[in-house]
Each structure stands twice: as structure tokens, then as C-alpha cells.
Write a structure and sequence with these properties.
heterodimer, A: 7 helices, globular, B: mainly alpha, about 0% strand, elongated
């Protein structure tokens, strides 16, 4: 695939699906340094995946799958290498926070999501973004019944915690 | 709070731009890193492959120029190692060429890739170092009077290489496999 075409698709996806990417980043990284690092990792993987995209699934599903796998791999690596991070001073930033949108209930949701293991976190994101059990099963590669069991557990825990906290 | 309420709260984010993206910086980093992973994986294999082919050519040239036919045994060993590296590389590329994989399939492909690396590291002594050691023995048999200190250097080199390979396997390769297996069990748990 010519690089110009790959670049066009890449920026088109970035424009359409940046909201989705930001949600994944916020769910797996908790300070600006890590969020930039993860954002870089995810965008590189998306770039590399573009020549392999055949249109068998929706582009949003493809981007979500690549983002989740990158985030899960990154969070495993990040746990091991959490010391010795480069200071942000003097480094050109890719991401700048611009929004004052700070709904405490959204913050509470991200806090609860952060407490889950990497797989349950990805399921919660997919569930909140309205993916069906079948789509989740395709993305994760597990049976729909397994998705159902995990989702029911996650929902039950979230509802119980919301009753304790609100 | 019911789950449907949580979903409504979650969807309210969709209308907000949380971050601004510096597209120039993004493009620079993506282009710089796009082939990083492929480069790292290729480096070891191609370096070893080229080294073995070069050693074979040098051994063949020396053997022919000096009429030392025993060096052809060295040539054979070097080219056999190169062929083994090439075959292993083709096997790896075959697995990694697949696309549109689910998360579980990606994990399993990564685990297979780690197993491939672990196997290669585990048999490093057998498939790489022993053949090279035999070429040294063959050379020594036909070139008399090798001083003892040279033998000590060879043995020290092999001992160091063996230790380095085992350390890499223990400290990097196997822990990575543990992480992947843990993720796979989280996915398949509850089934």
C-alpha cells in the first residue's frame, strides 16, 4: 500500500475515532506522561495495521481491537518499567488537555474501570460503548456465553459500588 | 445508579474533545517508530544469517586458496546453520503474517512467537555453538601446535555466551510468556 494512502486512512481514522482512543487511553493510563506514551503506542499499532485491514469488520471495531490489544500489552510492560521515566520538560507533546469537562460521575466510572484487570477493563469499555455480545466475542475471541458471564459480573460489581459511593 | 444511567453518563463524553492532538509531532513519532518492532525482530536473525554465510564464504575461499580441503567441512557446517536460521525465520513470518485476529488469537500468536524465541535460545548451544566448536576442533586437528591459552579463550567465550543466553531467557523471555499466559487465562476464565 502506498504510504500516501496509508497516511490518508490513518488521519481519517484518527479524526473519526479519536474519542474512542481517548477513552481507551484514560482507562489504561492515569497521568499525562503515560497517556502520551500509550497514545503513541496505539497510533503506531494502528498505522502498522492499516495495510492488513480488509473491511471484514467495521473500521471502528478494527481500531477498537487494535487499541485494546496495544493498551493491554502496554500496561503489562509499563508495570515492569515504571521507574526512570523521561521528564516531560523540553519534550514536544502530542497530547494537550483542553477540556474542562470533569463530570464527577465520569471520573468515578474511570476510577472503577481502573480497578479492574486488563481484560475486564476492555470488556467494560466495549459494553459502555454499546457493542453487542457478538461483537465483543469477535473482538476478544471468546464465546458469547463467556462474554455474558463476565459482563454480568462486571455490571453487578459496578452497580453495587455505585450504591455504596452515591 | 443503574447501568443504563452509567451508559448515559459515559456517552456524554462523546461530545467533548478532551485532548488536542499535535499532528506534526504525532506524524514524526509514528514514522520514526513504524518499523521499530519489525527491525528489532529482524536484526538478530539477519545478523546471524549474514554472519554464517560470510563465515562459510571465507572458509571456502581459504580452503581453496591454501588447498586445505578439510575447511570444506567448516563451510558445510556454516551453511547448515544459515539454512536452519532461514527456515526458522520463514516459520515465524508465516505465523506473523496473519491479520484480523481477535484479542485471544493475538495473544496466542504472541505466545507462539515467544515459544519460538525461547526454543531458539534453549537450543542455542546445540544448533549454533556446538557446530562452531566443531569447526574449531577440525581446524585444530589439521593446524598443529595451537597454544593452550587459545583453547582457554575459546572455552571462556563459549561459557560467557551460554551464560548470556540463559540470562536473557530467564529474565526477559520467560517472564513475558508468563504475562501473556496470565492474560489468556483472564480471557478464558469463567468459561
Amino acid at each position: 500500500m502506498p504510504e500516501s494512502e496509508q497516511k490518508e486512512i490513518f488521519y481519517d481514522w484518527l479524526k473519526k475515532y479519536k474519542g474512542l482512543l481517548f477513552k481507551v487511553i484514560r482507562a489504561y493510563a492515569f497521568n499525562l506522561h503515560d497517556q502520551e506514551d500509550l497514545f503513541q503506542e496505539i497510533t503506531i499499532q494502528i498505522w502498522n495495521s492499516i495495510p492488513n485491514f480488509r473491511g471484514d469488520s467495521a473500521a471502528s471495531t478494527w481500531v477498537y481491537r487494535v487499541s485494546l490489544y496495544s493498551a493491554i500489552s502496554w500496561s503489562k510492560k509499563e508495570k515492569k518499567h515504571s521507574t526512570g521515566k523521561q521528564s516531560l520538560d523540553g519534550v514536544s507533546h502530542m497530547l494537550t488537555e483542553i477540556s474542562n469537562f470533569k463530570d464527577s460521575r465520569v471520573e468515578w466510572l474511570y476510577t472503577q474501570i481502573a480497578k479492574l484487570n486488563e481484560i475486564d477493563r476492555s470488556l467494560t469499555l466495549l459494553l459502555l460503548d454499546g457493542f453487542s455480545y457478538k461483537e465483543m466475542s469477535n473482538i476478544l475471541g471468546i464465546s458469547e456465553s463467556n462474554v455474558g458471564v463476565k459482563i454480568n459480573r462486571i455490571k453487578k460489581d459496578l452497580i453495587q459500588k455505585s450504591q455504596e459511593d452515591f | 445508579m443503574e447501568f443504563e444511567d452509567m451508559k448515559k453518563i459515559w456517552d456524554e463524553q462523546n461530545n467533548e474533545n478532551i485532548y488536542a492532538i499535535n499532528e506534526t509531532e504525532l506524524h514524526r513519532r509514528v514514522i520514526r517508530n513504524k518499523n521499530r518492532i519489525k527491525r528489532m525482530v529482524n536484526k538478530f536473525e539477519l545478523t546471524l544469517l549474514i554472519a554464517m554465510v560470510c563465515c562459510g564464504i571465507v572458509a571456502a575461499t581459504m580452503g581453496i586458496l591454501h588447498s586445505q580441503l578439510y575447511k570444506l567441512a567448516n563451510v558445510f557446517i556454516f551453511f547448515m546453520i544459515a539454512a536452519y536460521i532461514y527456515k526458522s525465520r520463514q516459520d515465524r513470518i508465516k505465523y506473523e503474517g496473519q491479520s484480523n485476529l481477535s484479542l485471544l488469537e493475538e495473544l496466542e500468536q504472541s505466545i507462539r512467537s515467544i515459544d519460538y524465541h525461547a526454543k531458539r535460545y534453549k537450543y542455542f548451544i546445540l544448533w549454533y555453538m556446538l557446530p562452531i566448536f566443531f569447526t574449531i576442533i577440525i581446524n585444530s586437528i589439521f593446524s598443529y601446535g595451537k597454544p593452550l591459552w587459545q583453547w582457554a579463550v575459546f572455552l571462556a567465550f563459549f561459557a560467557f555466551a551460554y551464560w548470556a543466553v540463559k540470562k536473557e531467557l530467564r529474565c526477559k523471555i520467560l517472564p513475558k510468556k508468563e504475562d501473556l499466559l496470565h492474560l489468556r487465562s483472564l480471557l478464558l476464565n469463567d468459561e
